[in-house]
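Treating backbone geometry as a discrete language has practical consequences that deserve illustration. Part of our work consisted of pairing the sequence of a single chain with a tokenised description of its backbone. What the numbers capture is local backbone geometry rather than side-chain detail. For completeness, the protein is quoted in full, as a sequence line and a line of structure tokens:
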Amino acid sequence: MAEKDLGILTNSAVSVGSTRLASDGMRADPDRARLSRRQEAWDRRPLLREIYHRYHQMISTARSTVAGKDVELGAGHGSFAQSVPGVLSCDIIPCPWLDCAADAARLPFRAGCLANLIMVDVLHHIARPADFFAEAARTLAPGGRVLLVEPYTSPASWIAWRFFHEERIDLAAQPLEDGGLEVGLPGSDPWDANIAVPTILFWRQLRAFHARFPNLSVIRRNRFDLLLYPLSGGFERRPLVPSPLVPLLRAGERALRPLSGLLAFRCFIVVEKAPS
């Protein structure tokens, strides 16, 4: 762990790799077993790995170059930290392959010490997203960034999220006030989610987001993944597309890109802290 400079952690942090486990009611065994199952799905599904590696490339090219450490939150499986050396890996669920256990609403890092906070499919699981962004504003260095790959709720994806996905979707939620989840509370389920949160925050309530966090700016919003991702089956379902059809679907995605607002399943968001 020393080579990853855990000196940026505060005294309240929990180092998992060194066998000191999480406090604050963080659960371990059942959730670790679920992460292990998802890791197995990652290992045996090449299309899923290809999709997430593309996400990782998007993140890598958009990272801030200011001085500071890069931290991935929710790094339990298929993570960015596994493919990029030097990135500190954290999750609310303690796992031996992670660097530390951390709650995104109470980040265990010193003020101004981070260059990038990276999250793939994590924001919509956070009980109170406003608490996370307050912590991001505190821990990021000036010019540092939050990089998010998240579900997007389009008319097409709403149908899939609503009827074929295990996570709930609630477009009436107010994530800047109270996300309506109980993640992080004693005995709560860290897999609880509202898949609509990214769409609400960064499209429907973007002005309110900037008013709430004047030192954070959303500098990039992309909608993508119209075909391949929903047909890949993700981590929980069987793939619906045979390998020989993948190139054809890629071409279809490119052709349908102008309709991303109607068809997209994913979004990429970059939030930057104001330079000093």
Remarks:
- The domain at 31-273 is CATH 3.40.50.150 (Rossmann fold).
- The mean pLDDT is 84.
